[in-house]
Amino acid sequence: MEDMINLKINGMPVRVHKGTKILEAARLLHIDIPHLCYHPDQRIKARCRICSVEVVGKKRLLAACATECWEGMEVFTDTKVVRDTQRGILQLIMADHEENCLTCPRNGNCVLQQLCSRFNILRPNLTHVAEHLTVRTGNPSLVHDPEKCVKCGRCIRVCKDVQGIEAIGFAGRSTGLKVTTPYEDDFAKTDCVLCGQCTVVCPVGALVERDDTDKVLDAIFDPAKKVIVQTAPSVRVALGDAFGLPDGSIVTKKMVAALRMIGFDKVFDTNYGADLTITEEACELIDRLKNNRKMPMTTSCCPAWVNFVEKHYPGEIEHLSSTKSPMSIFSAVLKTQYARQEKIAPENIFSVAVMPCIAKKYEARRPELGKNGNFDTDAVITTRGLIKLIKYIGIDFVNLQEDEFDDPMGESTGAGAIFGTTGGVMEAALRTAYEWLTGREMPTLEYTPVRGFEGIKEAQVKIDKYNLKIAVVHTLKNAALVMNKLQVGQCDYDFIEIMACPGGCVGGGGQPVTTTFAATKKRMSALYEIDRSSKLRRSHENPYLKKLYAEFLVSPGSDKAHQLLHTCYQARTKEFDF
């Protein structure tokens, strides 16, 4: 049994495990000690000191986020000296902070704004000394406004400790300290892969995604446009967070109803595209196995992961599956076969994707994912962007009457749903590959060895005469470990799934800013629940997918399928092309 200790916080006794920090102990008593730099998924930084508390016997205030409790400790979080200190820190931060809250993307959802309201700081009482700094907007995904930065270090920690990229860091010292990129270049010219994890942990508006909601509304208001939306699997288990629902709530049908109210002409499901991706990817894996082509094959549905390979491991590009991501496959089919069936000119279709990922904004601008200078996906908005649209329209999301996706591209399988979690792509691909190689259904559809939150998961699967060694990886820091082995010939896997974000798309860079590892795990469970409750659980069983192949694509892996559903990649310098 772990050692337990007893202490008092504001006179109230509490019993905690040895090693518990004061901030965590206070939560057991339903006391929220104010904090700014602290994040539950990161190493302790103790930079901002807003969590300062008074401890009996100590001459100075201690940081609640960094101080471990001890037996008999007495803590006070609400004394005058504590309050005056916290208010003073906030006043100092505000003196060096851009004062445009009303027009800030994080207005109403900003930790600094909430703290100022909590401490009744209605206006700064110190001279405003903020230096005018240039806003970086030189890429399709990410906006960096250094004047809003509070120097908490959250973005630095996630970029270094979770992704291993280190595209951003501290520069200067004292009053000249700032968070910036090497040589203060735009993110597109650095090692950044646009995963967007920095935008999820930033407590203010210093790092946000590029907002395309106005572009979408302009298209909806254009009578000449048929505006069609697709929604990624992980959006439906994260969207409810912003409306007070429990983490991981499945809000698929409310989401569909909200999208109709916003004004989309058709509401389709990216899971249909995921079923197509799996069908083509499984076919490609079998072809590589049978014909001794480049192995191991790695998934390519995560755009930040693809960016990572192109920038950091250009010599290993051939390992990437040539199959497009579900979003890009969906958009390609939308503007070809669907347009033909519905007798709509492709140029009159405005294709919108709701994604959990800001890297998808860059993916949509890849010149190879379009035709004659026109992109297959016209606009990408994140889960946060959809939240903004729902609030703009004034929709009472929680009490919405539920609705269903449109046919034919609203039909999908459980395999398409689990695409949104780490291990889901691998599991879905195995269900199809096993049946095609053996002629039998996979004995157990739920392949648990690839499930869970472990950074690198390994397993072996016997399929016919092949003994496949597989790996499932999430976060780019873990991906680098695998790729380094691959570079020196020490990687004996046959098939590798890699997702850039913690937990996969459920923890993506475009998800609500309240996203934590704990919330991500609940979303993972929700996607598996969607799979378990689905009538069809193998991608190749999707009836509309079968019809698409019969009437248009001929068969998985056919020349026609390759022309429409596959792509290519290229080695890049640090700078993206867009």
Give a verbal description of the structure.
The chain is an alpha/beta fold and 578 residues long. The protein has three domains: 4-78, Roll (Ubiquitin-like (UB roll)); 117-209, 2-Layer Sandwich (Alpha-Beta Plaits); 214-565, 3-Layer(aba) Sandwich (Rossmann fold). The protein is 33% helix and 14% strand. The chain has 18 helices and 19 strands. The chain has helices at residues 22-28, 80-95, 111-118, 154-162, 197-201, 213-220, 252-262, 270-290, 303-312, 326-342, 359-363, 383-393, 414-417, 424-438, 476-487, 517-532, 543-553, 559-565, and strands spanning 4-9, 12-17, 52-55, 62-63, 74-76, 142-144, 169-171, 178-180, 207-209, 226-231, 266-269, 297-298, 349-355, 370-371, 374-375, 379-382, 456-463, 466-474, 495-499. The strands form six sheets. The chain has a five-stranded mixed sheet, sandwiched between helices. Strand 18 (466-474), helix 15 and strand 19 (495-499) form a beta-alpha-beta unit. Helix 8 (270-290) packs across helix 14 (424-438). The model has no long low-confidence stretch (mean pLDDT 94).
Q: How far is it from the N-terminal to the C-terminal residue, by CA?
A: 57 Å
Overall morphology:
globular
What is the average per-residue confidence, as pLDDT, rounded to a whole number?
94
The strand order across the widest sheet is 2-1-5-3-4
Helix content: 25-40%
Strand content: 5-15%
CATH architecture assignment name of the largest domain: 3-Layer(aba) Sandwich
| Total of domains | 3
